[in-house]
Amino acid sequence: MIVAIHQPHFLPWLGYLHRMMRVDLFVLLDHVQFERRNYQNRALIRLEDEARWLTVPVVQLSQKERIVEKRVDNPETDGPRWWGPNSFQTLRYAYRKAPYFELYAPRLQEMLHARWEKLVDLNIATLEFVREALEIRTPMVRSSTLPVEGQRSGLLLDICRKVEATAFLGGMGGSRTYLDHDAFAAASMGVVWQEFRHPQYPQCGDAPFIPGLSALDVLFNCGPAAREIVWQPRVGRDELLAA
To answer: Which of 55, 116, 177, 179: CA 20 to 30 A from 195?
Structure first.
């Protein structure tokens, strides 16, 4: 069984979903420390031909807060800081000329107009929204529900063991530099690295193509064709399992 492990992101980008498509199980790493100024509470969208952040405000209590503990900074009543409806209006303005915005708008509006107390619940809801649109059916499990321990590479290996994986599919980020290959080899745990070539597709606007945006960008611009755009030629499973 091939496993990928990553923190839950808010409206994730294509590389995140491309990796999820290629595994048998995706572990949401939600029991680790929340990272400020990262993708856990913000996503990039195309606004007026530039990449701009769409951010979920969060309550800052401690630098050691875990993702699973992080709370959304909601106002007491509706007002200028009511981030959800404001975010939806920003998306409507940014993608008003995108051919498929209205196809996804009702569900997205419902989700962003809801009141979320925990960031992780919002992130999972946005992830499920995108997964459904792209027909991604990979099972998911939260690390906070597993009896795991360790840090960095040791934690990844322990998670792989606990879910009875045979191979770990690493992503594009930090694990490439800190993964302990000897420890994985000693545990007979295969390791293979994601190979992702960012696809280009029609984007509304006049500026050149902007990579690295939230998956909403490809959905709004390409609609049902988005799945094949994200999928790309698949690495053979025999190759992954033998790694």
So the answer is: 55
Q: What count of residues does the chain have?
A: 243
- pLDDT tens digits, 193-232: 998 889 999 999 888 999 999 999 999 999 999 999 998 7
Helices assigned H by DSSP within the chain: 14-21, 83-94, 101-113, 119-134, 152-162, 175-178, 181-186, 215-222, 226-231, 237-242
CB 50 within 8 A of CB 182: no
Q: What is the pLDDT of residue 135?
A: 96
Per mean pLDDT, which range of 17-31, 64-78, 92-106 is the poorest?
64-78
Report the interhelical angle of 101-113 vs 83-94 (nearest 10°). 170
Number of Cβ within 10 Å of residue 112's Cβ equals 23
Indicate the average pLDDT of the chain.
91
52 - beta bridge partners?
A: 45
Pair 163, 139: CB distance under 8 Å: no
Distance CA 109, CA 102 (A): 10
| b/e burial code for range 20-59 (CB count within 10 A of at least 16 → b) | bbbbbbbbbbbbeebeeeebbbbbbbbbeeeeeebebebe
Whether 7 shows a pLDDT value over 60: the answer reads: yes
- In whole angstroms, give the CA distance from residue 10 to residue 121: 10
N-to-C CA span, the chain: 12
